[in-house]
Description:
The protein is of the alpha+beta class. It contains 9 helices and 13 strands.
Amino acid sequence: MLWKRPLAGFAIATSVMAAGLAAANTVPVPGVKPGGTAPPGYQPTLTIIAGVPVPSKKRDVPEGYVATKPKLVLHSQFPAKNYFGAADGPAPLKARAIGSYAKGCLAGGASLPPDGPTWQAMRLSRNRNWGHPELVDYLKDLAADAPKVGWNGLLVGDLAQPRGGPMLSGHASHQIGLDADIWLREMPNRRLTAEEREEISAISMLKGPLDVKGADRSVDPKKWSDTHARLIRRAASDKRVARIFVNPTIKKALCEFEKGKDRNWLRKVRPWWGHHYHFHVRLSCPSDSVGCKNQDPPPPGDGCGSHLTYWLSDEPWVPKNPPKAGEKPKVVKKRPMALAALPNACRTVLTAN
């Protein structure tokens, strides 16, 4: 019959397997992998299953065991942002802002909690809610005073990465834990969800585009209010603040808002590109941060004169040689900052565990 031949083959295979199993009981099992050396007295633990010796289950990891982290290898010419962007926690060192705002790092960083009585941190997935402890204290103080000026609470954007340094995307500054972005949008009367913190946008205060000849470079009165101005005045009046960056249109609105004799706070508020949906607070270097470099002080005066007139003119906004129709504007890519460009102390910040 047709089935006899396969059945015979099966019987032969079965007998071979049985012989193999019997032989397995007599063949010694290597104590170590080829080329390895067993510790003195080592004997592998085996379990016999169906006549076959099988290594027993490995023992559980002891409670409290922590694997040794591999040593971080630093290369001077590699982009610094790749190293600092990969750090998921702060350097366990004494708090210290190192270097300058756009070329430095942060030791002993503190995190701004995602939620406080009068603040909420935004874009948590970026892991940029870190700063020098003095910055975190400042933000908590400002948030506590926000309701006193009619502002329900702060929505706080980017501070710095856990160890500061150049970011993988976005800011050129925010590197030493002394910069923070505060949205020009009031905190709602409820806690935002994790999804909302990623998706909700800040609100632009611009009335219209700035790069058109003869544009009305003013804030939109439907969005801007005196409450915005009072919040920024409170933020700038703190002695710890070195500068606050705002859009020139907002600087103009602040100059018009202040009717009192004390206009000293306006000196710290400086017009700059962007910054029409948030204001950027920058603190002075803490006294105990050795190696931290302050910017030069702002020019004397309230900054509401000829300097602001320039910013509100066509000169800084309207392209002198606009691209022709259908022609894409040229984009000049900057080479990423190498690790070698940062202070030497930033290597210690990276490798600290």
